[in-house]
Amino acid sequence: MIRAEATGVPSDGMLRRRRRWVVPLLLALLPVALVLGAWMGSDASRLPASVRDALGADPQTDVYDEVMDRLSNAYYRELDRDDLLDRSLEGAVDSLDDRFSAYFDPDAYAHFQELTEGEFQGVGLSVEAVERGLRIVSVFDGSPAARAGLRPGDVVVEADGTSLRGKTAQEATALIKGPAGTRVEVTVQRDGGAERTVSLRRERVAVPVVESEMRRSRGIDVGHVSLSSFSSGAHGEVAAAFRRLRDDGADALVLDLRNNGGGLLNEAVLVSSLFIPDGPIVTTKGRARPSRTFEATGSAIDTRLPMVVLVNGQSASASEIVTAALRERNRAKVVGTQTFGKGVFQEVIQLSNGGALDITVGEYFTPKGRNLGGGGTKKGSGIAPDVHAEDDAQTRRDEALEVAVRTVARNVT
Questions:
Q1: Cα(176)–Cα(122) distance, rounded to whole angstroms?
Q2: pLDDT of residue 191
Q3: Which helix (H) or strand (E) holds 119?
Q4: Which residue out of 212, 217, 317, 319 is catalytically annotated?
Q5: Measured between alpha carbons, how far is 225 from 22 in angstroms, rounded to an integer?
Q6: 317 given a catalytic annotation
């Protein structure tokens, strides 16, 4: 429960004494207020500041409404008031200088909800914004993009003839996503070469959250599970994958969190709890929220098989929470490269217009009390691996995974 601070609040006795003169005064002023209201009309911003305050008007809200009215009515071309509202809210959040906070307009929020639920309507791409447009990070198997031959590293430079250069990721993806059954033409450039345009029919696409396989090193069977995001229900898929591998004879485990930028905090706690039977996982602290320590849920599926966590520079947030918990609780070694270094967490707050604020509300701390960020929203040192391993993007082999498998296999007795 959030409580207002009591400092400066008058006592009950003071309030009773005030009522004796406040009520008659308000009654005496009521006819004056009615006359002023009739004279000034509905525009409270024209009233003197002292009178506006006495009547309960909010000067800041008045100014905002005044500006919106002037723009809507007097600007040289017609404007969409809803669009003005969205842009003003985006500007307010942008002024925080916090790359982790964002305002979602109603359409963007609907898409965000789809992603956290593991399904969306689109062409099947995971992307990141670059100067020219959107660089493809991954292509989902069986998706329209996969059937069209798009692949990681390609840059989408146009959508339906509109250039994506200089647009934010949100603005650019809004031009590509859309209802299942509709079409979008995307222009793609590969390795700086010639551009080509392909027509894609949008579909309802299931986001592949977990992939698993059995690897072998020095006669040791190693179960490898890759988790792409901490979306709703991710812990259940991870648990099912590890159980299958264990039942198939896995002697050791690799949890692959490379390129996993995070997701839901409770999913991070639940995934950690698959391997840690009890005790602290992470502690959160915020200005408007009390400190809270999240403990393992007691649903561990395995606490004895040797295990490593594989990470890279794009492993962030929830990925770092899990990695730190597993290492600091002596459950796993870390293989890969330095993680991102994010030490804050966000909360999604729904708004009355159908949009939402996704804003930073606090910091998190590992079981040993470490914050992985650089102070506030600054990027920090992250997690340094116990064993360095890096994949060479120019080869078909996954060198980092090979190192992880060899490392954990050596710990099997």
A1: 7
A2: 86
A3: strand 119-122
A4: 317
A5: 69
A6: yes
> pLDDT tens for residues 225-263?
999 999 889 999 999 999 999 999 999 999 999 989 899
| Residue 266 Ramachandran class (φ > 0 left, ψ -120 to 50 alpha, else beta) | alpha
Query: Minimal CA–CA distance to 148: which of 86, 190, 193?
Result: 190
Q: How many Å apart are CA 264 and CA 249, to the nearest integer? A: 31
pTM over 0.90, yes/no: no
Q: What does the DSSP 8-state code read for residue 105?
A: -
Q: Is 368 a catalytic site residue?
A: no
Residue-averaged pLDDT of the chain: 84
| CATH numbers and ranges of domains, the chain | 119-206 (2.30.42.10), 210-409 (3.90.226.10)
Enter the DSSP assignment of 116.
H
| Lowest-confidence pick of 169-183, 227-241, 299-313, 336-350 | 169-183
Chain-centroid distance, C-alpha 49: 41
What is the per-residue pLDDT for 126? 82
Could you tell me if 271 and 322 are in contact, meaning their C-beta atoms sit under 8 angstroms apart? Answer: yes
Q: Which of 226, 229, 315, 342 is catalytic?
A: 342
CA nearest 368: which of 315, 324, 413?
324
The predicted pLDDT at position 289 comes to 84
Q: pLDDT category, 358, cuts 50, 70, 90?
A: very high
Beta-strand runs (E) in 296-332:
307-311
The upper half-sphere exposure of residue 291, i.e. CA atoms within 13 Å in the direction of its Cβ, equals 4
For residues 264 and 319, what is the distance between their CA atoms, to the nearest angstrom?
A: 10
Nearest-angstrom CA–CA distance, 380 and 38: 59
What is the spatial distance between Cα 147 and Cα 48, in angstroms, rounded to a whole number?
66
Amino acid in the structure at residue 14: M
Instruction: Render 140-200 in DSSP notation, one character per residue.
Output: -TTSHHHHTT--TT-EEEEETTEE-TT--HHHHHHHH---TT-EEEEEEE-TT--EEEEEE
At 58, the pLDDT band (50, 70, 90 cuts) reads: low
